Every structure is written in structure tokens, then in C-alpha cells.
Input
Amino acid sequence: MSAPTMQEVAKRANVALSTVSYALNGTRPVSEETRLRIWQAMSELGYQPHALARGLASKRSHIIALLFPALPRGFGATELEFVTGAAEAAQGRGYHLVLWPTEIHAVSELQQLVRQSLVDGVLVMEVRLRDERIELLQQIGVPFSMIGRPSTASDMSFADIDFEQTTRDAVAYLVQLGHRQIAFLNHSEELFDAGYGPSVRAAAGFEQAARAAGLTPISRFCGDTALAGQEVFEELIQAHPEVTALASMNERATVGVMQAAASRGWKIPDDLSIVSLVSSARVAEMTLPPLTALTPQSAELGRLGVETLIGQLEEDHNELVQRLLPCRLVIRGSAGPSPDIARRALLTAASTD
Amino acid sequence: MSAPTMQEVAKRANVALSTVSYALNGTRPVSEETRLRIWQAMSELGYQPHALARGLASKRSHIIALLFPALPRGFGATELEFVTGAAEAAQGRGYHLVLWPTEIHAVSELQQLVRQSLVDGVLVMEVRLRDERIELLQQIGVPFSMIGRPSTASDMSFADIDFEQTTRDAVAYLVQLGHRQIAFLNHSEELFDAGYGPSVRAAAGFEQAARAAGLTPISRFCGDTALAGQEVFEELIQAHPEVTALASMNERATVGVMQAAASRGWKIPDDLSIVSLVSSARVAEMTLPPLTALTPQSAELGRLGVETLIGQLEEDHNELVQRLLPCRLVIRGSAGPSPDIARRALLTAASTD
DNA sequence: ACGTATAGTCGAAGCGCTTCGACGGCACGT
DNA sequence: ACGTGCCGTCGAAGCGCTTCGACTATACGT
Output
């Protein structure tokens, strides 16, 4: 008892096979009357078009691939939301989303996958500033779109977090709270040098935002561990005791900072304000106090990526879609008014006795 | 300049189309010599078999679906690892993984998807104790496997976290640290009643482990918020002041507990030990102190789920595979030796003045 | 020597669909 | 009245592959 075919539907509706196809896809006009007969036959049989056959004949599989780095140890709730957002958007538009976990540099693997003609297009996640995968896709001529973007993206479609704007928002919020000495805590220098977009763009955004506000930008790279966070923070406060607020890209290091602050006897947000950049609620709510954060609209980005790609696949005019989404500020408990530095210094002196 | 077809390979190697197919799949013997010629032709042309055509002809698409609840607000790093683990395993075995985000109860939607004959089998995530999706899949006769399992799973294949064992391990660890009064913090009663497997099984495991160790099991349901965690903890300590350790299934509530403990002047782990059950490193490392946790082998579970399913698809003997994976204990800073309760009582008295 | 199995290959018939060309019919304009 | 054009439908030709039956050549047992 296998699935009904279009042929069976046609027989039951007393029409030719092709007429059923036209009725289904609207490719050619079909009279109201026959269309009704066909619909009825379809629902009586519980007919669903065979996806593979349709794809083979039409050369459009209605499948798109989501390309993301394999074994992403640094991934969390944010990335999961990209994926689910993308999958839902695809489903809503009648597409299937397949997952292609591939090493960023395993370009030949990607090429093999693409050559199987399984997918109509590719959505690339975690795009680096210079990204071989993008170069390959361009060269092969596969339609693609990105979540993130390389440094030269002027001629490509993408949806990305607006890191510059996000950093500006963080700085603006802290300035509004009265802070005048704000430091920026980045990921490691290695990641930055490797062209990790979020790291590079947020750093640039911070630099710019600080100067625009008339502040002296202070930045630190930091490994993605609590210990590194402690160390970098100690060094930072040594070098710049006047710092009262921190904007951090680095969640794990942030925990270290909070620890270091605590061991100095500093309270957050009373003695130090922290704003966490690009943090999911899931993570920001785990600390004490919970982190005031700029939360990415991850699901929305996934959705946008898919929409952009499908737009490209279905329209002929093939327009460029480039969308930057800022993060949303969620005020929790880690940022407050600028503290009295003198008082703070006393605390530190006391705790280091 | 479209992709080369098998026909072109055949021509170039001076053999029949079917011979190429045999050489590729090993369906029938092909002489060493011709096989080499064919291989060469394939690599010269950069041939990759057309996935859709292959699927249509063979009735095996080599695509499997991953079914997971739409808009999973409670999802995090653990679930992402299921997905990536599954995707990698599928890829390693020559399969593609498509994502089907569907409401748990939207069974007709699932039926439509299955009828498209796009996938050879389905891997179901987040299985409830009683799950309509499973019933549907069984009834339609689609091969499937699960991450998680319904209450009556004796005749189905699955891979699941061993919640009972995980809870036993947590209890054992706390007992070993000298704790004799251990409380269990669950998710909400609603989730429990809805047949949320982790909640139900961990609760059972705790009950059993506590009794086996000669302890009186103390359990609490708790909403998934820090505030609920605070309230439930206060009530718990009121009712059972002798409790020195907590095993928690509920990460968000755990934060509330830590907060409540801190406001009593209690230090963790000195005055209260906490072990977090089924927590990813990502989350467990955000608190101060970081949480000693039982971490699920999520990627491994995803992999197992896929392997199980593919085994079912490719073998004829269709054997049952049922795997339970315990979580691994990762010792961080939230659990320590059983405290001096008298001292703790003093702290509490002092802070409530 | 003979039948019989097996290796190695070919051609052709689909898999279930889309799409092209063709064709009859009816509505137009003139 | 007659072309012209579009509506609505049909049949057939693929899409790129797997698989079946058939065929030849070689190896085997007796």
C-alpha cells in the first residue's frame, strides 16, 4: 500500500496526468470545474506530491542547505535559534532545510555536496571576514545567502547582527547612566586576527562610539575563560582605575570579571557596571546579578537569511538584500549609575590588606 | 554548463550507463579494469551522482528528518548539540538531515511531510511519555528512532539520557561528600504532569536513590524562573532546615536558590551544596561558583539516534537498539562537604535581623 | 564432452513528476 | 464569413538514475 501517485489522481478525476500537474502548480489555466474534481480526488486519496520526483523533473528541489561549522564548541542558544528560525521560515515557504555541518576550510567537501544537486541554494552561517566557502559558492554559481558577512559583501545578500550599532547602544546606555570611563572586553586576539566578524566589528563599533561620546576608548582582548577574565580585569583596573563600566563580548570572561570584582569587595552594579553584548537570555540570566544585555534577534536573523535566499531563488530580478539587525537591550541587574570611585578605591584597599 | 551525468561518464569510459551504476554502487560485479576506467572518467568530469534522481529510482532518498518542537524557548546548548551530533553522524554515513520543526501536537502536518516521500526515516527529539507523533509514525509505518522515549518503548528504538542513573550519580556524589539530607528540585508540576520524560524519570530516580541510601527523599516542583527558585527554596528550608544539599533539574531556579542562599548569608558550597543535573558546560560555568554538574553527552546521543535509525533502514533483521547514556559528573565549585548546620543557622539568624 | 553456474556487460523499462507542442473550441474584431 | 488569439486539455518526451532480464564468455564438476 504505497502512496498514491499523480496518475491515480488523474484517473480518479477523469483527466490527463498533466492536467493534474497544472491544477496543482497553476502552471496553466484549469477550469474551475475540473480543478474541483481534481482537488476532491486528491483529498480522497490523501495525495501528496512526491518531493523527489517533483524535484527531478522541475530541477528545483525546494531544499536549501544550512552550512555551519562542524563541532561548534562555542555554540549555544543563540546559534540554535538561528537554526530553528531558519528551519521554520523554510518550512513556512514550502522548503526543506538540510544541515550541512562542515569545517570552514573543508571546501572540497562542500563542493561535493553542492554537486549532488540536492539543494537549490545555500545559507551560510558563521561567515568569516574572509571566507573560502563564500568564494567557492560564488565561483560555482550556487545561489546563497549568509548570516554574517565577509568584509567585502557589497555584492552579496546577507542578514547579520548590527554589531556596530549594538556596541553603540551599549555605550549610549552606559553613558546615559553617567559612566565616562568605559572599557570594552573582546574575545581573544587570535579570533580577532582570524577575522571573526563579531569581534572585529564590535571592536570598531566601540572605538567609534567611545570617540563620538568624547570618551577615550579602552579595549582588551581576553581568552574565553573565567580565569582569563579575572586576569585581564585585574590588569585593566590596574592600568585604568578610573573605569566604572564594562561592555563585554565575552560571556565566559565576564564571569571571571564578576568574580574578580567580588574578591575586591566590589558590588555589581554598585561599584562596577557590566553590559553583556550579544548574549542570549538563557546565559544572561545565570549570573548574580543577571546580566543587562544586548540580545540578538537570532530567530529573526535565521528567518531573514532564509527569506533572502528564497527570494533570490524565486524572483528573476535577483535583487540584493542586505539586512543588519541591532540587538535589543534587556535591562537586568548588572548595570547601574556610575559609582563613586573614591569609595570603591577604599574597598579595594581594604580587601587587599 | 550543468553537472555531468552518469551517461556522460559512461560514454567517456566506453561502457553502458548501467555499468557505471554498478561500479558506483557495487550492485553487481564489475571487472577491475572497467572500474578503473569508470573511476577515472568520473574524476575527470568531477562527477557526483544526482541525489534526487538516485532517490527517485532507488526509492531510498538517503535523507532523514529530525523532528523537533517548534519555537523551543527552553532550548539551549544541549539541544543544539543533539542536532549537530545528529547532523554529523548522518553526514558521515552518507545521509542528509532535514529539520522539521513541528508542534508536538500538529500531527497532520507531520503526516503531510512524511507523505512527500522525501525522507527514509525520522528521528524524533523531545519525546513525551505519551506522544502522538510516535503513535502516528508507528501507524504509518515509517521507520523512526528517538532521542528520549515514551513510557512504553519496549518495542521501539531509542537513545536517551539515563535520568535515573544520572540522579543516582548525583545523590551518590553528595552522599560521598557527607550529605544526609538532600533535596531534589524539579521543573514545574505542569511539565511533570504533561509527561515530560526528564522530569518524571529524574524524580523517580531521585526517590529511588534516596531510599537506597537510607535517606528521606525531599522533592519540590518549581517554575523555571529565578524568582520561583527563591521562593521554593525559602519554603523548602523552612520545612526542612536540615537540608544541606540540592540536586536540581532546573537551571533557572538554581540561580534563584543561589540568590536566596546568598541573602541568608550562606556561602556555596560551604553552607549549601548544589549539583545541577543535565546541565551543559556553557550554562554551568556562568554562575559563581560555577556549578558542579552532570553534563549530558548530547552530541553522542544525537549520533546514536541517527546510527540507530540508519541501522534500521539498512539492515533487514531490523533489530531493536535501546541505549541509555548517563550524564558525566563535572566537578566545579558548587558542591562540597556537608556543612555544620548549627553554624549555618546562626548565619541565617544574623541576616534576618 | 556436456550442462550449469558465475562474472561481466548491455539495453530498456521504469521511478513520479514537469513541461512542451498540439489541438479543438469559443470569443473576438472586422 | 474568416482569421486570430486564448482557454483548457491531452499525450509524450524527458529529468538522471536503479534495476531487471538477457546475453556472452569463462570456469567448474563429473
